[in-house]
Amino acid sequence: MKHEDMIAHARQVMSDNDRGTYTVPTHGLYPFQWNWDSALSALGFAQFDEPRAWTEIETLLAHQWEDGMVPHIIFHQPDDGYFPGPDVWGTGREVPTTGITQPPVAGFAVARIHDRARDKALAGQKAREMLPRIHAWHQWFYRARDPQGTGLVALLHPWESGRDNSVDWDDAFSRVPTEGVGDFTRRDTTHANPEHRPTDAQYKRYIWLVQKFRSLGWDNSKLHDASPFQVVDPGFNAILIRSCEEVADLAGRLGMTDIAEQSRAMADKGLAAMETLWNDALSQYLCYDRKLGQQIESPSIGGILAVFAGVPTARAEAISRRIAKLAESCEYLIPSHDPTSPDFEGLRYWRGPVWLIVNYMVADGLERADVTEMVGRIMGDCLRLIEVSGFAEYHDPITAEPCGGAHFTWTAAMIIEILHTHEFAA
Ligand code: GLC
Q1: Is the CB of 27 under 6 A from ligand 1?
Q2: Are 364 and 308 in contact (CB under 8 A)?
Q3: What is the CA(343)–ligand 1 centre distance, in A?
Q4: Is residue 82 in contact with ligand 1, taking CB distance under 6 Å?
Q5: 3-state DSSP call for residue 217?
Q6: Which end of the chain is more exposed for a tag (fewer CB within 10 A), N or C?
Q7: For the chain, how many helices (H) and strands (E)?
Q8: What is the pLDDT along the chain (426 residues), one digit of tens a residue?
Q9: 335 preceded by cis ω (within 30°)?
């Protein structure tokens, strides 16, 4: 496919999923606004419509909670096709939202869109408006999700990670009870192949946690210590650290000194603490189970995505070698779980498939560290996947089979972004 045709197709996907002030990830399966989907999709919008890109993030931030949290889903319009809906979450917001958060990539997105904006005046104005909100969200993380001040934040629900059913959570998640979860009807499996989705047993535990947090009135000063699930994810922390780094730089340039200094301090502390998650044997970072006080030996993409933050060059080089090793066991980079691991499942969501958004962030981190050997391969694989299988939610790293929802917003946004920012042989 010609690159301009690919871009035209991607723009069509984005405009089909555009609801005016926000986009849905894909019609049917995900009919609301998702947090990190919006931030990453804004990068795609910015390539052809800067005002629309700003609106996407503005809408997201308009639903920030008073304590600083930016929720993972905003239920703008009722839709029966999704479970669990607002009645299950019971957060009591005027426009209903969930009560958990998602990877805070908005800070990175705002800085990137600002820095390359054609409309500098608009970009300056929008960044000035948004940075204090994003900063408040970052501060919320270190207050509410790192009460001991370790420098690393914990996830309290697998959905916060954005990598919903990763192998990383299995052990910690098996300690989440299921008692008291009544009957419910999943909707996701009516829109997508159940073989590509999490299991029923996992869904019960997802809902148990929601009910637990709801019983605590969604009070974030209580949730962390009360949660039986507290996992530190290097990928998630890297996104937070990178956003703090970007906010520090941009705020500094805009003369917002307090935000710049505080963001720099958070990023520095986070980066230093990331070192405790490094695992030499696997040549990547690993998750950490805060309840058990031990690393989780699961070779997933979270520990590779860590390169998105300004990790030491030696770590970036080791991660690049790790990716080269993964390339020996799959056709398309980067699998969300090591294909040689017994837990690998090529079609099941975050237990093996390739996700373009993750590829983009990993490649960006490697470029920023100036460790570029694998970058062309990772970006090229994104294009090959779309060429072979279309704008799916995720793809099998061995067969390229398109999985999950079709016609996916952030997949399309990544293609637009990648084709505008990298050179490829036609
Ligand atoms: C799934 C993904 C999550 C994403 C959401 C909407 O829950 O795991 O990362 O934000 O779908 O696309």
Answers
A1: no
A2: yes
A3: 21
A4: no
A5: coil
A6: C
A7: 18, 9
A8: 899 999 999 999 999 999 999 999 999 999 999 999 999 999 999 999 999 999 999 999 999 999 999 999 999 999 999 999 999 999 999 999 999 999 999 999 999 999 999 999 999 999 999 999 999 999 999 999 999 999 999 999 999 999 999 999 999 999 999 999 989 999 999 999 999 999 999 999 999 999 999 999 999 999 999 999 999 999 999 999 999 999 999 999 999 999 999 999 999 999 999 999 999 999 999 999 999 999 999 999 999 999 999 999 999 999 999 999 999 999 999 999 999 999 999 999 999 999 999 999 999 999 999 999 999 999 999 999 999 999 999 999 999 999 999 999 999 999 999 999 999 876
A9: no
> Dihedral sign, CA of 308, 396, 197, 286?
negative
Nearest-CA residue for ligand 1 atom 2 is 162
d(CA 44, CA 50): 9
pTM for the predicted model, two decimal places: 0.98
Place of tokens 């520090």: 248
